[in-house]
Specification:
10 helices; alpha/beta
C-alpha cells in the first residue's frame, strides 16, 4: 500500500498529520509516552501554562449541583520557566511540533511568556483569552473584541515571529447569541495578528437518550453548524472543526467533523459499563491502598464519624490508607465495595479525610500492610468507575477517576513492569 501524505499546514507550520493532542488531561505527555510513540502525532499542545507556578484548586475539584457537575481544576501547572527547563526538553525528544498554551492576568504577562517560549524554540503559541483580566474587574479577555485585540497584539509583538493562535472564550449564556453574532464576528476574526486554527463546541447532554435532551443536543449542533457555515461563507478559514468527545461520538458518529476529543476513552471507559463492554475496552487504571490496622469489634460498636455504621455482631474491620483527601468520596460511605484478601468486601462507616474502613468479618488472611483495591481489577474481581460513581448523586465514571487527588502516587506499568513512579504533590 503506497504511503499517504497526510501533511497539513497550520499558521505556516507544517505538521506531518492533522492529529494534535489538545486535551488538558494529556498533561506534558510523560504518562502517555509510556504507551504510545508521541512522535507519531502531528503536534502536541501541552497543558496550559502561567507565568508563575499554580497549584490549582484544592481537592475536591469537582462539585455536584442540582444542575449537574462542575469541574474546576484551576490551571494547575509548574509555570513557564519550569516547563522550559524540565518538560520541553523531554517533549523535544519526539519528532513532532510543540505548541505551548498560555494564560495570563495581564497583557504584560502574556508578552513575557511569549518572549520566553519563543526563545526556548516552541513551534507555536496558543493564547488562552478565557482568563480573567484583573485590570478590567475580572472580565474575560475573550468576551470583548477590544480586549482580545490588546492581548493578541501584545502576544504577537513579543513572540518573535513564532505563530500565535488565540483560544476564544466560550463564556456566553446562550449559544444562539453566538449564531446571531456571527455577522459581527469579523471584528475579532479580522484582526491581522490572529491565526484561526480551530472552532469547537461541547455538548452538555450529548450522551442522553431522553427525547427532550436529544432535541436540545440537536439544536446545539445545528446552532454550531450555523456559526461555522456563516463564518466560512464570509471567507474565514476556521481550521479544525470539532464538537464530539467520547459519549457524543458514540451517539452521533456522523458529527465527528474534522476530529474527535478522546477523554475517558483513553482510560478504557465509555459512557456506561455496557458500552465499554460492547467496545471491548479494558480499564488501564487501578487505585490501591494499604491496610494500616485490623480491629476486632464487639456487637453494637460504631465505626467512624456520625456513627452511621454499627456492628451487628462480632465483626472484624480493616482500616485502609485512603480517604476523601485522596479523592475517595464521602458519597461512598456504606455504599461501595473494595477488593481485599481475594474477595469483594463492603466499605463501612463514613469515609474520613485520610482513611476508610472495610468489613472483613470471617477473613483470617488479612494483615496490616496488605493491599486493597479501591478501583480496578485483581484476580478476576473488579471495582469499576461506574459502580463507584453510582454511589454519588450525579456521579459519572469520569468524575470517579478525576477525583483521585495529586497526593496519590502514580505508578506506570508496561507489560507488567514498573517504568515510572511519580508523586504530583510535594
Amino acid at each position: 500500500m503506497p504511503d499517504v501524505n497526510m501533511q497539513v499546514e497550520l499558521a505556516g507550520v507544517t505538521l506531518k498529520n492533522p492529529v494534535v493532542v489538545a486535551s488538558g488531561t494529556f498533561g506534558f505527555g510523560r504518562e502517555y509516552s509510556q504507551f504510545y510513540d508521541l512522535g507519531e502525532l502531528g503536534g502536541i499542545c501541552a497543558k496550559g501554562l502561567t507565568l508563575h507556578p499554580r497549584s490549582g484548586n484544592p481537592a475536591p475539584r469537582i462539585a455536584e449541583t442540582p444542575m449537574g457537575i462542575l469541574n474546576s481544576v484551576g490551571l494547575e501547572n509548574p509555570g513557564v520557566d519550569a516547563f522550559i527547563q524540565e518538560e520541553l526538553p523531554f517533549l523535544r525528544t519526539f519528532d513532532t511540533k510543540m505548541i505551548a498554551n498560555i494564560s495570563g492576568n495581564t497583557p504584560e504577562e502574556y508578552g513575557v511568556m511569549c518572549e520566553k517560549l519563543a526563545e526556548a524554540g516552541v513551534d507555536m503559541i496558543e493564547v488562552n483569552i478565557s482568563c480573567p483580566n484583573v485590570k478590567a474587574g475580572g472580565l474575560a479577555y475573550g468576551t470583548r473584541p477590544e480586549l482580545a485585540a490588546e492581548v493578541t497584539e501584545t502576544a504577537k509583538k513579543h513572540a518573535g515571529g513564532v505563530p500565535v493562535m488565540v483560544k476564544l472564550s466560550p463564556n456566553v449564556t446562550d449559544i444562539t447569541e453566538i449564531a446571531r453574532a456571527a455577522e459581527e464576528a469579523g471584528e475579532i476574526l479580522a484582526i491581522p495578528q490572529l491565526h484561526i486554527t480551530g472552532i469547537y463546541t461541547h455538548f452538555s447532554c450529548g450522551e442522553s437518550s431522553d427525547p427532550e435532551d436529544r432535541l436540545f443536543t440537536q439544536n446545539q449542533y445545528d446552532a454550531f453548524s450555523q456559526v461555522v457555515h456563516v463564518l466560512e461563507e464570509r471567507g474565514y478559514h476556521l481550521g479544525l472543526r470539532h464538537c464530539t468527545s467520547t459519549c457524543p461520538l458514540l451517539c452521533h458518529p456522523d458529527w465527528k467533523m474534522d476530529m474527535v476529543r478522546v477523554g475517558m476513552l483513553g482510560y478504557g471507559q465509555s459512557m456506561t459499563a455496557e458500552a465499554a463492554r460492547e467496545m471491548d475496552l479494558r480499564p488501564i487504571m487501578r487505585w490501591c491502598a494499604k491496610v494500616v490496622a485490623v480491629l476486632d469489634l464487639e456487637p453494637g460498636e460504631s465505626v467512624s464519624y456520625g456513627r452511621i455504621y454499627r456492628t451487628a455482631g462480632r465483626e472484624k474491620i480493616a482500616v485502609l490508607s485512603a480517604g476523601y483527601a485522596d479523592g475517595y468520596s464521602r458519597s461512598y460511605s456504606n455504599r461501595v465495595r473494595v477488593i481485599l484478601g481475594g474477595r469483594e468486601v463492603p466499605q463501612c462507616g463514613k469515609v474520613c479525610m485520610d482513611y476508610t474502613m472495610a468489613n472483613i468479618t470471617g477473613m483470617e488472611n488479612v494483615r496490616v500492610g496488605d493491599e486493597a483495591v479501591l478501583l480496578g481489577c485483581q484476580d478476576g474481581l473488579c471495582i469499576t468507575p461506574d459502580s463507584l460513581s453510582a454511589a454519588a448523586e450525579y456521579g459519572v465514571n469520569g468524575w470517579t477517576t478525576a477525583q483521585v487527588s495529586a497526593r496519590v502516587p502514580r505508578i506506570y506499568l508496561r507489560r507488567g513492569e514498573i517504568v515510572e513512579t511519580r508523586t504530583l504533590f510535594h
